[in-house]
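Reopening this ticket.

The earlier resolution said the output was attached, but the attachment link was broken on my side. Pasting everything inline this time so it's all in one place.
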Amino acid sequence: MMLDTWVLDSYAVLALLQGEPGAEDVLKQIEAAQQGKSRVLMTWVNVGEVLYTIGCRTEPKRRMLREQTTPAEENPAGVASSVIYLKR
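Inline output:
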């Protein structure tokens, strides 16, 4: 039996965590996956975006993460990157 597969993005998870419109739909999919009726996936990039967004909203010190972004012109590979350090 093939299961339906749902891929969540950061907006879906943030809607769920913040009780925004669409949260009930996301919760239904997660519950179905917990019952083995479907699969729910999420990329690590989106997981990081959720953690970053929540961190910036809940702890002002984490707002400094925005200042740790390396502009593309300073990056030898020519790709913008950011370093995220979360201290417990």
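Reporter confirms the inline version is readable. Residues 75-88 have pLDDT under 50 and may be disordered. Residues 4-82 form one domain.
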